[in-house]
Design a protein that fits this description.
Length: 98
Amino acid sequence: LAAAQRAAHRPVGGYLFVDADLPVHRRPDDGHGHGHAHRGAVPVPADWPEAPCGYVGTGDVQDAAARQARLRGWPVTTRAGRTDQEIARALGELLPAL
């Protein structure tokens, strides 16, 4: 997503993850089982994130992604609810923090 925005000369204003796995830097696999790349893993540019990030979790349980986001210093909202209105409210509260 960021690469497409850069190619179009549009800056990224921020990244907001909702119940998502967070991107991680991985070394490329050398084809012999060495390295840390996983099938389907998207490489993360070295300068990522170049914009503020936040995380919204809608589940009842604190998940690993929310913990990782907190460790990165991102604003985090958990237990946002599962209805469209509850999620929209959580997004509206978190976006100004970015």
